[in-house]
Design goal:
By secondary structure, the protein is of the alpha/beta class. Helices cover 34% and strands 25% of the residues. The model has no long low-confidence stretch (mean pLDDT 91).
């Protein structure tokens, strides 16, 4: 009996081991297949022709420039899935990519372009950009320009593409070359307390950027100046400094890839010329027109026409957090072109009436994109008699902006109760007549228990970070020692706190600051209670609007906020995930009035898809 039992146990163990091995092999084979399709080019780019593309008069062209591409979204780099969504929407709208030669022919020979022309750029020359965007370009039959800094070639920085890789990219036919300039550096830098920091390289800049304001410049845009704004260099020295970088760029590209790319982007321009100073502008203009065939001199808007100079072109830089309709909204209002927004799940969309903006429902999430400098507004159909309700939702729109839920609202929003988060502050308001009255307000940083910091404390922190940076980057032992002594003295300084009477430091919200709040509320009779992230925000708040009414959702632009980039962006994406509304009767099982969550087989499929993506991401990051 003991032998038979052991044999059964061994057989079961062997079966489990066999199943486990099969699963592991399947996963490995799937990853290998993904890697093959990711790293090998299997197609060739096919240029548009008058036979297969509509060409009618002068419609100009749209230029988009992405910073870079990662497997998943992060603060600055767009993820593969979202980039695919962006470009797929443009392809579905009929956009085709144009090349640098097409742009030259458009300006120099009067050649008309396709009615919907896209000039696509990827900046900074990152290796991951090429890896993760290649297959999307192949799928869409899109061609793009890869911009690089030749200084990176000399440093052999592994994050960035090297010359031999650029040559291979060109051979795929989906890429051509451009440049951001010789290097990236900053001059005339001040922190937000007007402390003069001088000149910073990218690493130094990255360390102190949390403490900077808007007062700094790209190194080609001005004279190098002292803390009083007086030039520290003569005209001859400025001219020689700028010339050195253009000459270095020319020589390195010629040696490494055999030619100087024809397309250039003058970084941080938007000045109406080629610098913040007329003499500096003239030097830049000389080199730009001698070395390059075209120059993107502006950022913020996407649309270019013949009335622009080929050396004064503009590009729009889509951000990693932009949903597809955000991009389309910007393009639509940049070139006054009528276009269709993406809709997503049409069955779920039937429950809503879009009154303003654009709605996409993706899986279990409602993405409501506002109009520029305006709002987006939805009305839940068949909700005009909603009275006592419970509601839960995860709000994932960025902190800078408005995500608003109207309850018990009349048709014209002359009467309502509203719960909203605006620029990271929770509000409860109500309206009955002409004016909206604030009932409750809560700063969500306070709700999180974030400690108040005084202006003196923040100033000390900024100065310590700056000194730490200068210690590490000092070009001599003597300088490092000087900065170290200053850092010790600064650390010993007393900075008055808020409790000691100092003014509180209130940071400007960045347009890039991600938001993610779980909101649940209970409205019954004259009382409303709200929880944020599982913690009471307000309990049994008295309200006077007790008449039944409809549910609306609203989103709106929250102001320009703090950003050195995309100063022209005035569109906002409100993101309502897993929105659930039920009756609030006190019954054990209450009626569901609306639910955007996924259920049954759809939920299982969704979770498996998420798990698979996580698994693939892990393999790609760790292999």
């Amino acid at each position: 009996m003991m032998t038979i039992s052991n044999e059964k146990f061994t057989a079961q163990k062997d079966r489990r081991k066999f199943i486990r091995v099969v699963i592991q092999i399947t996963i490995i084979l799937a990853v290998i297949a993904i890697c093959i399709t990711t790293f090998f080019t299997l197609k060739a780019y096919k240029a548009f022709t008058p036979q297969n593309t509509k060409i009618s008069g002068d419609k100009g062209f749209v230029t988009l420039a992405y910073f870079g591409v990662e497997r998943i979204d992060n603060q600055n780099l767009i993820g593969v899935e979202r980039l695919h969504d962006h470009l797929q929407a443009l392809k579905d709208l009929g956009y085709v990519t144009i090349t640098q030669q097409d742009v030259l022919d458009y300006y120099q020979s009067g050649k008309n372009l396709p009615e919907k022309s896209l000039f696509l750029i990827f900046e900074d020359g990152r290796r991951d950009t090429a890896i993760f965007s290649q297959k999307i370009l192949e799928e869409m039959n899109f061609k793009a320009t890869m911009l690089t800094y030749p200084e990176k070639f000399e440093k052999k920085d592994n994050e960035f593409l090297m010359p031999e890789e650029l040559i291979e990219l060109e051979k795929t036919t989906f890429w051509e070359m451009g440049t951001n300039g010789y290097r990236l550096a900053f001059i005339n830098v001040f922190d937000r307390y007007n402390n003069y920091l001088g000149e910073l390289d990218p690493l130094e800049y990255a360390k102190v950027v949390p403490y900077l304001g808007r007062k700094y410049n790209h190194y080609l845009m001005d004279y190098i100046r002292d803390e009083y704004g007086v030039p520290k260099e003569s005209y001859t020295k400025m001219k020689s400094r700028i010339a050195y970088d253009y000459e270095a760029l020319r020589d390195i590209y010629t040696k490494s890839i055999g030619y100087v790319p024809g397309m250039y982007i003058l970084m941080h321009s938007n000045t109406g010329s080629f610098g913040n100073n007329d003499k500096v502008s003239a030097v830049n203009e000389y080199w730009i027109k001698n070395l390059f065939k075209m120059n993107f001199n502006r950022e913020g808007f996407s649309f270019n026409q013949r009335n622009s100079s080929i050396y004064d072109l503009t590009r729009m830089q889509p951000q990693a957090y932009w949903y597809t309709n955000h991009l389309l909204m910007r393009i639509k209002y940049d070139n006054n072109q009528d276009l269709e927004f993406v809709k997503g799940d049409l069955n779920k969309k039937k429950a809503w009436e879009t009154l303003k903006g654009a709605l996409e429902i993706k899986e279990e999430t409602l993405i409501l994109t506002s109009l520029p400098k305006d709002k987006g507004l939805l009305r839940l159909k068949n909700s005009s008699d909603f009275d006592d309700v419970k509601l839960s939702v995860r709000l994932k729109g960025n902190q800078l902006g408005l995500q608003k839920i109207y309850l018990r609202a009349d048709e014209n929003l002359n009467r309502f109760l509203a719960v909203h988060i605006f620029n990271n502050v929770l509000y409860v308001t109500q309206k009955a007549g002409n004016s909206e009255k604030e009932l409750f307000k809560l700063n969500l940083d306070k709700h999180d228990g974030k400690e108040s910091r005084s202006i003196p404390e923040d100033k000390k922190a900024a100065e310590m970070r700056e000194l730490e940076t200068f210690v590490k980057s000092a070009n001599s032992t003597e300088k490092a020692k000087i900065y170290s002594e200053r850092l010790k003295d600064k650390n010993l300084e007393n900075a008055a706190t808020v409790t000691e009477g100092a003014e509180e430091y209130i940071p400007d919200l960045s347009v890039h600051a991600k938001g993610d709040r779980n909101v649940s509320l209970s409205l019954k009779g004259e009382k409303i209670s709200i929880m944020i992230d599982g913690k009471d925000a307000v309990k049994d708040l008295q309200v006077s609007n007790t008449k039944a009414g409809a549910v609306y959702l609203e989103t709106a632009w929250g102001g320009y906020g703090w950003s050195q980039r995309n100063l022209a962006d005035d569109v906002y994406d409100g993101v309502f995930e897993k929105l659930v509304i039920t009756e609030n009767t006190g019954a054990e099982k209450e009626k569901i009035l609306f639910d955007s969550s996924m259920h049954g087989f759809d939920a299982v499929e969704f979770k498996l898809k998420k798990f698979w993506q996580t698994l693939i991401n892990w393999f790609i990051v760790n292999l």
